[in-house]
Each structure stands twice: as structure tokens, then as C-alpha cells.
Amino acid sequence: YLFILVFILLPLSFLSAEGVTILRHNGYDRLLVDSAGMDGSPGECIGIQLAGEGKLKLTGNGETREFRFSAGKNPVRIYLYSSLTNLIPEQITISDTSPDYDLVSADIIRRETPDAPVPADIGHIIFSGFDGKNGEKWRLYSWNLAPSVLIFDTINYAVQSRLFKRLAFFVEKPGYTGRLVPNEVLEGKHGWNAHDYKAEDLADFFSLAAESGFKLNDEEIFLREQLTEYGIIIRTADNKYKAGSGAVLSVSRETLPDWRYRFLTHECLHGLFFTNREFRDDMFTVFGQLQPEEVEFWKHLLDYRQYDVENPYLLVNEYMAYILQQPVNETDEYFKGFMYTRMTAARPYEKDFVADFERNFPESFTNSVYSSEKILYNIAGRLAGHLANIYPAELKDSFFNLFPPLF
Asked: Is 119 in contact with 232 (CB distance < 8 Å)?
């Protein structure tokens, strides 16, 4: 009888990995962390590979933190850094899981190179602490869902502009594309509040700068060296650059939290478009199925947003990101309650065009979300407006629950 009692009290199975022992129980899993050697340094974390959805309860030094995870149908790797959790966990309990939940592995990870990009999902980037008090101008991440995509999280817009403003004009701004412009010419002109660039455009920018002797900012030089080190661009024998694989994105801590999450979602969608050919091809197919009047509306809207609408690649890329950056239930509110108002206020002559479009295509935006979201889920396991894999438990199912109304 004693043997039977002991057997019942033990977990059903266990698995030991680097610094973490996984105990599997009926209804929950528990991770025992060998935290004695952990010091909470920026490059140190616990990596967990899992699928499905559920709750993480972290306990350490008498404190508790709770998070939700949403990993989709295929296992993805999430990273728990102390800058997000605010504690070094001694154990992690995984519970309230969905039927498709699967725990594959868990271990302690330490970066060997202190300045290397930190692997993270966008939930970490949004909710981790970073105030620049120690002189940091940015933190550099690699996105867990697309590791060749680097993400700069800058302390403010001024720093972000020093890194990316001239790239913005070189790549996307009508009247400036393909040109290297001195800082003084762009003084007072707006770049973007967030940025995204594919390897080919980055290589073109830095090649032209090298060929012409164009003086780069210190921040642009740092960016070039990071892109070279991680293979996004490749230095050639003639001191020019060619495209490697990957992309670079940027958001700023100066952005308000609700917009910051939306901007980062938007930029990460571009990162997926840049680096995943299947996703890109499928989105070109979806855009090609729009009615001519719908395509014309998107050209009007993106022209108002100061994009080069004669660039088909850019047109489809921005259509995709604007459509998928918010959940489907917020789509009409965003476009009809916000974009229509902003667009017609800036361009009163567009009022009749917008009214005709709304009358003839009232379901255009939601239909686009449904078509595009299927593709996103099949490829990345995520839904429109929900790219994050981990977030504080009090947010429930949506980041937007925490924030004041957008409109």
C-alpha cells in the first residue's frame, strides 16, 4: 500500500534539460529551475518550447508572477528574462492549457556575446522594463517567430531617426527614393514612427553610401555593422554590399503603449513578409483577388500615408500589415472610425470617393482580414492583431484590454 501511495504522489513523468527539470502531472506541468547560478543579467533567460495556450505561474524568492502564453498550433520558443518577469524563478507551473498544448523542452540560456541580439517575442519587447537611465539608447532583439528579423527598441524618436530616417526616405518616400539625402535637407521632415527594411534595400543604401563617399551617422554605421555581422547584408570584395537573409525593424519607447503594440505588430508583419516567401506569395494572391475599386481605394489611402503606391511590392506589403495589425473585431473601427476621418480631414476632396467606397464595399476590410488571417495562422500560428506569444496574465486574451480606448 505504501508503494502504491508513493507512486500516486509522484509526477507521471519527468525530463531533465540544461538547468531545468520538467515534471509532468495530470492537468499541469511543473518546471524546477536550478536558479542558484542565475544572476538576472540581460542575456540570461529560461527558454521554453511549447504549443497551444495556457498560464505560466513563476515562483521565486517568495514572490509570484503570472503570465499567459499563446503559441499556436506548432511549437514555438518563448524566452523568460528577468527584465520581463522581475524575478528569477525557482519553479514554473503551466496550467489552464488548451487541448493542443504541448511542452517540448525547457532550459536555461546564457548569451556568450553580451552585445548580441536578444531572442524574444513581441510581448517581451512591449512589457519588459527599459528606461534608458543607464545610458542605453536602444535594445536589440531577434524575433522568436523569425530569428533573422532584428528589432531595435529605441529609447525615443530622436535616436530612432538617427538610425533609420534617411533609410525611410531612400526606400519609401515619394520624391526621395533611391537618393542619399544629407541630414540638413531632411530637417523638420517626418520619417516614420516605426520602421521596417528588407535585406535588398539595406544593401542598396549602404552600397550607394560606400560608392559615393556619403557620410553616415554613427548610428547608421552601427546599424551597418550589426546587419553585416548577422548576415542580413554581406560586404563584397569591392567594399559594396549585397543582400543576405533577414530584415530589420524598429519601434520607439516614446510611443504610447496602445500604439506601440500596434506599431510593433505592424512592423513584425512586414518582417514576416520580407523573410517568408510562402506568406509573401499568398498575400500577393489575396491582393490580386480584390476588386479594381478596392485596389484604387488602397492606393488613395496609402498615398495619403505618403507611401510610393507605384511600387507593387510596397503596396501589397502595406495592405497586408494594415489589415492584420488589429483583431478582426477592431478592423472597421480602425478604418471607418479613424482612417476615414483622418484621410478626409487632410484631403477634403476625397470625401465623395470615400463615401462611394463605403457604400459599395461595406465588408471590404473584414473580408480582407478573414482571407489574410487564414494565411497568417497557417504559416505562423498567429491571428490578426495577436502576434505576441507571452503577456501578463491580467491582459486576458488581448493586449488592448489594458489600454484606454483608441478612438
From this structure: no
Beta-carbon contacts of 287 under 8 Å, excluding residues fewer than 6 positions away, are: 295, 315, 316, 319, 320
Dihedral angle, C-alpha 382, 269, 149, 165, nearest 10 °: -150
**pTM flag (> 0.85):** yes
Contact 406, 258 (CB under 8 A): yes
Cell representation of residue 399: 493586449
Per-residue pLDDT of the chain (407 residues; tens, 9 = 90+): 444 444 344 444 444 457 899 999 888 999 999 988 888 887 889 999 999 999 999 999 899 999 999 998 889 999 999 989 999 999 999 999 999 999 999 999 887 776 789 899 999 998 887 777 778 899 999 999 999 999 999 999 999 999 999 999 999 888 888 999 998 988 888 888 999 999 999 999 999 999 999 999 999 999 999 999 999 999 999 989 999 999 999 999 999 877 888 899 999 999 999 999 999 999 999 999 999 999 999 999 999 998 889 999 999 999 999 999 999 999 999 999 899 999 999 999 999 999 999 999 999 999 999 999 999 999 999 999 989 999 888 775 544 433 333 33
Strand order in the sheet with 247-252: 118-120, 138-143, 146-154, 247-252, 195-198
* CA distance linking residue 138 with residue 153, whole number of Å: 5
Question: Phi and psi of 384, rounded to 5°?
Answer: -55, 130
C-alpha closest to that of 40 among 93, 92, 89, 105: 89
CB 266 within 8 A of CB 166: no
Three-state DSSP state, 328 = helix
DSSP for 194-212 reads: SEEEEHHHHHHHHHHHHHH
Q: Which three cell numbers stand for residue 174?
A: 515619394
